[in-house]
Specification:
mainly alpha, 2 domains, Tetracycline Repressor, domain 2, homodimer, 77% helix, Arc Repressor Mutant, subunit A
Chain lengths: 218, 218
């Protein structure tokens, strides 16, 4: 390895460490409470070294957005009917809420972040648009499989509510004093979103939901 | 009127003006972007005069919370069945969302405000507890009037979703780029919450919802 290669590797490693530590600090303390000086300090590097890699905090946030986008783009379940469709949907919601938890700093003060950074708001809205289309397509396939009974207008309103509840679930939990976000919080969130879909389910799908949801309902 | 009375009246007027102007600025610019100096400046009074009335910004926020609490405590509709129950419920949601709009600074950065001020978080949670109980009682009365078909566990999950969607509706609208919060935004929010309840409605209540909701569905 030449010296230049060594430097490049070291530099890339520093860059990756800055991103990892920023994510950790943003999530734990809230993005607005963390400065670039805090990040440098926490890594034991100089502010100058940090600025060599990132112009400012917003650039760090934007670079963290790419892996978040990859995580939140969970591939939707394949079309299925009956109980299988319900388990697939439940798992899908679970993975989505886990991704939100891992990048929860984006969801705290979301309004603030989005109004400060137009690019971020546009990227976030594109995610919401894609998710809306995914939920509508999933519902359409459940209707086609006779696992759901709902009109197109009902499905659109349902999809919007699915997005609102999943986007703000962790904020609501934090407000209510559940800030640990363990598996239990995420499972409760997936149930809460499933509860939006449940009244439209029919037949085996509905029965399967009732069985799976029993422990949350009681 | 004695001079002392005159001073007292003037002092109370200044206090009220500070609260009004703070609410306006917090709502328009976001609470975190507004300092006590901004408020004094906007009113053309000295910072010292403002500090004579309020120790700090958090005290202003807490004092604004009392009229907000009064506004959000919309009396729930009297038990009714059929179409009447639906119109009452719809009006109730409308008034609640209007109150949220008038004090929207509390809902932006809600997580931040609540984690900074424990007392405020507790008061906010008591509102949510009361609303949850109100929604459960409303659903129970709809079930008793045979306007709704839902089990107790379903009603609890539904009430939680009603609270999440109404709490975060304006944040979601702002994120999606609708920041005007006119009548249209509030009506759309009331529909979005009604859409949570709709699949549990039966008979005349359901038909009435379908008629009223037609313009949102299409």
């Amino acid at each position: 390895m030449t010296r230049q290669d060594g430097n490049t590797v070291r530099s890339e490693r520093t860059r990756a460490r800055i991103l990892d530590e920023s994510l950790r600090l943003f999530n734990e303390e809230g993005e607005d409470a963390v400065t670039t000086a805090d990040i440098a300090n926490s890594l034991g590097i100089s502010p100058g070294n940090l600025y060599y890699h990132f112009r400012n905090k917003d650039q760090i946030i934007e670079e963290l957005f790419a892996p978040f986008e990859a995580r939140i783009d969970v591939p939707p379940p394949a079309p299925a009917g009956g109980g299988e469709a319900i388990e697939d949907l439940w798992l899908y919601l679970h993975l989505m809420l886990e991704a939100i938890w891992d990048y929860r700093f984006l969801y705290r003060n979301l309004d603030d972040l989005a109004s400060r950074n137009r690019r971020l708001r546009e990227r976030f809205n594109r995610i919401i648009d894609r998710k809306h289309a995914t939920v509508v397509a999933l519902c359409d396939s459940l209707v086609a499989a006779r696992a759901m009974r709902a009109r197109p207008g009902e499905i659109r309103a349902l999809a919007r509510n699915v997005l609102i509840v999943s986007t703000y679930w962790l904020n609501f939990q934090a407000l209510r004093g559940h800030r640990d976000g363990g598996e239990e919080d995420i499972a409760a969130g997936a149930f809460q979103v499933m509860a939006l879909v449940a009244p439209y389910l029919v037949g085996a799908a509905r029965q399967h939901f009732d069985r799976l949801g029993q422990k949350y309902i009681d």
